[in-house]
Amino acid sequence: MTEVIDAWGQHPTLRHAQDPMFDSLRRWTKTPTPTKELPVATTVGLMDRAGVDRMLISAWEAPRNTMISNDEVAGFVAEAPDRLVGVGSVNIAHPMEAVREIRRCVTELGFKAIRVLPWLWEVPPTDRRFYPVYAACVDMRVPFCTQIGHTGPLMPSEVGRPLYLDQVALDFPELTIVGGHIGYPWTEEAVAVATKHENVYIDTSAYTVGRYPPELVRFLKRHGTDKVLFGTNYPMMPPEQALKGFDALGLDDRQAQQFLSGNAKRVFGL
To answer: MF terms per GO, please (predicted)?
Structure first.
C-alpha cells in the first residue's frame, strides 16, 4: 500500500479530552470520558495498526483556555519525530502575540502549519481577527488549516460555511488553506471554492470512507485529484476506522497516492 499521511489529528492532553464541549461526540460514539493521559506510544501503535506513516497533530487554542499548547505538541513530536508532525494554534484575540507565536512555531518548534477553528471563536474566518494570522502564515510559508462544515460540539455551525474561504482566498491569494472535515452539509461549496482557488484544499477528517459525500468522491476522481487530503480527526476517529473500505472508492493508483500522501507532502512540505 502507498504511504499514508494523516492531515488532521491531535494527540490530546487530558484537559482537552475531558472538556465538556466534547460530551456530544462521546454520546454519538458511545465512548467514556478519558481519565488518564494518552501515551504517545498508543497513538503510534494505532497508526501502525492502520498503516499510517505520519500524522499531523495540532495544538488547540480556545478563547477560555489552552486545551493543547504548542509546547505540548512539540513534546509529543519529540517522542516520535519520524511519525508525528506539529501543527500550531494561536489566540486570535491577541493579534500581535498570535503573529509572534506563529513565527516561533515555525522557526523554533519546526511546525508545518497553523490551525484555528472558527467555531471555537464563534466568528467566521472572514473576521478581522483572523487576518494577521493569514498574513503571518504567508510570511512564514506555512498552510492555514481550519474546519469547514457543521460542528460536532454544540456550537454554531454557520461559521463553518466553506464559502467564507472564498473571500479569504481572494484577499490572500498566496495563502495555502486546508479545510478539514469535508464541509458537510455544504460539500458542494467546498468543492467549488477548492476548484476556484489554486491554493485551497479539502481534507476528509472526521468521516469514514463510506460517508464521503458523492460530490467529494467525484471531485477526488476527476479535477480534484490534487486537491483532497486524507485525514482522520484522531482520536475522535481511529485511523483504522477512517481507512476501512478504502478500496471501495475505486481510485486508480495515482488518485490513491495523491489522496493518501502525495498532496499532504506537497501542501505541508514534508
So the answer is: carboxy-lyase activity; hydrolase activity
CB-CB contact of 191 with 216 (8 Å): yes
**pLDDT at residue 230, rounded to an integer:** 99
Amino acid symbol at 16:
H
C-alpha cell at 217: 468522491
Task: Please provide the DSSP assignment of 159-199 as one string.
Answer: GG-TTHHHHHHHH-TT--EEEESTTTT-HHHHHHHHHH-TT
Q: 151 with 132: CB under 8 angstroms?
A: no
Q: Return the half-sphere exposure (C-beta side, CA atoms, 13 A cut-off) of residue 190.
A: 34
**Which residue bears the cell 472508492?**
249
How far apart (Å, rounded) are the C-alpha atoms in residues 190 and 89?
Answer: 23
Written as nine digits, the cell of 164 is 467564507
Which candidate, 15, 14, 20, 58, places its Cα nearest to that of 234? 58
Q: Are 264 and 229 in contact (CB under 8 A)?
A: yes
Distance, in Å, from the CA atom of 10 to the CA atom of 65, rounded to the nearest integer, reads 17
pLDDT of residue 13: 95
Which positions of the chain have pLDDT values less than 70? 1
Q: Which three cell numbers stand for residue 231?
A: 485525514
Cα–Cα distance between 76 and 74 in angstroms, integer?
Answer: 5
What domains does the chain contain, in order, with CATH numbers? 5-268 (3.20.20.140)
Q: CA-to-CA distance for 48 and 169, rounded, in angstroms?
A: 36
Residue 6: per-residue pLDDT: 99
Task: Yes or no: say if 126 and 168 are a contact pair by the CB < 8 Å rule.
Answer: yes
Q: How far is CA 265 from CA 75, 94, 251, in A?
A: 22, 31, 19
pTM of the model: 0.97
Q: Answer for the pair 139, 172: CB distance below 8 angstroms, yes or no.
A: no
Of 232, 174, 182, the residue nearest 57 (C-alpha): 232
